Amino acid sequence: MPIEKVRFTFLDRLIKEPVIYRVGRDFEVETNIRRADIQEGIGWVILELEGEQQSIDDALDWVRSVGVRVDPAVGDVVEG
Amino acid sequence: MSHVLSLRCKECSREYPVEALNVCDFCFGPLEVVYDLEAIAKSTSREKIASGPNSLWRYADFLPAEYNPAIDINAGFTPLIRSRGLAEQLGLDELWIKNDSVNPSYSFKDRVVAVAAAKALEFGFDTIACASTGNLACAVAAVSARSGMKSYVFIPSDLEAGKILGAAIYNPTMVAIDGSYDDVNRLCSEIADSYPWAFVNINVRPFYADGSKTLGYEVAEQLGWRAPDHAVAPSASGAMFTKIYQGLKEFEATGIISDVHTKMYSAQARGCSPIASAYEEGRFVIRPVKPSSLATSLAIGNPADGYYALKVIEASGGSAVIAEENEIADGVKLLAETEGIFTEGAGGVAITGLKHLVETGKIKRDESVVVYITGNGLKTTELVADVVNPVLIEPNVEAFEAAMAARAAK
């Protein structure tokens, strides 16, 4: 089963939304939080997603559509 | 010889064996190389370093790979130049320019790739790869030509011609990706997970990053075995910035120099300033951005080492500084016109950042300063194409003299 390691960055208006719960419930993607930091006005969560590739892609598209930034967990792999 | 003990997670401190790994299995934190600094202190000395090769391998005791002359392209040990014209313009008594734009493939990336390639060969890889907006691609392609390793370089399809040529000339397998910045990132992550290659800034990243420590060692040696009061460096992923400081601190810990009081300043461009913006807003959370900057080699929206760069700023008492987009070319021109050094946009950001730091009083006239120039302007001539404006004359002396008189009257 495909696995992706991603980082979600939330701005304050989204911090109260159960985004990760909905990824599991609506897209049947298993989520496993590894590290997180929530501060005033901004927060991030690094997590592992496991599921069918199409389900992961759909889930990430939905996460982006609600305004959460999605990045590779390790940072950008493209460099200067 | 190398004095590596292990790899260690920078977040949860779990230890890992010395393998091609970059991420902690538990918390997904980045791994770093752990050295036996006591053993290094016993085995090295100023004299030993000074008698070493004229490349970054003079610091082999501090590096995670063994010196391998067969693949050495003489990266590092670049000039540290005492500034005159620029120092005078900015009002500084002791300004030094670390000119890393004269590395073999014309950027500091030759340092990190030299170490990554040496380690990749030790691990038994026969292929090195990278995803790059230019300089890294050039460095990977160059070292692969020298080492005989196969190389794959992935680039965005809209890269500047000078950077494409600067990599293509070494005949790597070059793949231009027609997609957004995020698309390039995503695809390269997938490829790195799927192929048994040394992807220099992914699976061998802990070793790769340590090549930049030599920018700290070299400056200390070239200053006569001392650390400067201030260091200004451009930041993209933040890795080079943090490693310069680590290099200075390791020299201190091993007794090569004393009293590292250097304040570290990270310079970014307005169009991609996730580290500097976090600093200005007083937070340690990096907010990733969609990059849009003339300083293309700094256009990294989600910097892997951004948090650690902020910690270096805090630990050293330095700060971050932002160059406006319309100041970048001016910074490039100022360095060229005052010092005869032609840098790329990242250098323009560093020079502009330095200027702001002096203007705001963070750097004082009588303090020693090093500014890092990390890439060459000849790869990105588009940035300053407007300087080409020769006086056109007929082929006779009268025409020349008339043109000069007209010019003088302006």
Topology:
The complex is a heterodimer of chains A (80) and B (410).
Chain A: E1 3-11, H1 19-27, E2 30-39, E3 42-50, H2 53-65, E4 69-72, E5 78-79
Antiparallel strand pairs in A: 1-3, 1-4, 2-3
Chain B: E1 4-9, E2 15-16, E3 31-35, H1 37-43, H2 46-50, E4 80-82, H3 85-90, E5 94-99, H4 109-123, E6 127-132, H5 135-147, E7 150-156, H6 161-168, E8 173-177, H7 181-194, E9 198-199, H8 205-210, H9 214-222, E10 230-234, H10 239-253, E11 263-269, H11 274-280, H12 306-316, E12 319-323, H13 325-339, H14 345-359, E13 368-373, H15 397-409
Parallel strand pairs in B: 5-13, 6-7, 6-9, 7-8, 10-11, 10-13, 11-12
Antiparallel strand pairs in B: 1-2, 1-3, 4-5
Helix pairs in contact in B: 4-5, 5-6, 9-10, 10-12, 11-12, 13-14
Q: What would a concise description of this structure say?
A:
The complex is a heterodimer of chains A (80) and B (410). Chain A has two helices and five strands; from the N terminus they run βαββαββ.
Structure description:
The complex is a heterodimer of chains A (80) and B (410). With 80 residues, chain A is an alpha+beta fold. Chain A has a four-stranded antiparallel sheet, with helices on one face. In chain A, α1 runs antiparallel to α2. Chain A is globular. The mean pLDDT of chain A is 91. Chain B has a six-stranded mixed sheet, with helices on both faces. In chain B, α5 packs parallel to α6 and α9 packs across α10. Chain B is globular and about 75 Å long. The model of chain B has no long low-confidence stretch (mean pLDDT 96). Chains A and B meet through β1, β2, β3, β4 and β5 of A and β6 and α7 of B.
